[in-house]
Please model this.
Amino acid sequence: MTSAVTTRAPSQPGEQPPPAHALRVTVAEVVAETEDACSLVLQPEPADVHRFAYRPGQFLTLRVPTPDGGWTARCYSLASSPDTGEPLKVTVKRTAGGLGSNWICDEVSPGTRLDVLRPGGTFTPPSLDEDLVLFAAGSGVTPVMSILKSALRAGTGRVALVYANRDERSVIFGDELRELARDHPDRLHVVHLLESLQGLPSEPVLRALAGEFAARRAFVCGPEPFMETVGAALRSLRVPPERVHVERYTSLTGDPFAAPEPPDPDESDDGQDAATVHVTLDGETRTVRWPAGARLLDVLLAAGLDAPFSCREGACSACACRVLEGEVEMAHNEVLEREDLEEGYVLGCQSTARTPEVAVTYDE
Ligand code: FES
Model:
């Protein structure tokens, strides 16, 4: 996933203390994946390691400078798996004129210090033990790779990957996939589609490939036309929508690194309308007063909880949590799909309380 926002920058990354709620990481290694894609291996500060707990398929938000002295924020999916013991790694592919991706690929080197936000996102399997079919195109393979490695290492199901690229040289993680296929011949099946040989993947081609795996849960990430074509193929195979997960690329307009605003003191909150929310986060449950009209994320941050977020506009899913009890209302949602809502996911940055007692978890 990738998305962007811009504000003024007082200095280069790493020169000032990190903004509130941001975390500082050091780039341990830059890996040239292809001609136009690189991976950053990131080392958190020792005291912050627990705040980087993540699920396969999630993303990090990075703060990067722009040439005019501003900041731009980009969300990049983690290619690493939380189940293999490997360090945190995000993979970045250059986009034409892309400030963040070109700065990262040209200027970042081992030792560069970056400010990031906690991992977030809902593009993650509910179970690693069920069979999966993964569809990726180009750098869309990044979160898919994380899911694939977690499923093979920590799960028991079989995994099929349908991976589309322009040509052989643009295949990211080619060697790693070959090695994984060699190590898991009975569980991993990889199909490469190269535009240089077969043309753009069409719906009939994808339908024919997906037909064999139509009973599996599907994950789809890549350029919008690719995701639409895969979606059409899966619909024609009658794969239920709740078993199809897509990672959408969004453009953000706010500044996720700006200091969070205090909760909106809603006029109707005379103290009697406030709800109570029980929040499970990082293995601990806390109870917090939730003023009427206030957004859940603001309430939690004001209470000193380390709740994850990125865009704060309902567009990225970094703040997603699951409602276990009670009801909330979302003001805006651009990113959660029907199946996410059915599983009880809501966006903390957009949620207000609708019942006096609410329980949510960020840990599932
Ligand atoms: S922080 Fe992005 S949707 Fe809430």
Observations:
- The helical segments are 99-107, 141-154, 174-183, 195-198, 203-211, 224-236, 296-302, 338-342.
- Residues 275-361 form a domain with the Ubiquitin-like (UB roll) fold (CATH 3.10.20.30).
- The two ends are 20 Å apart (CA to CA).
- Residues 162 and 238 are 19 Å apart (CA to CA).
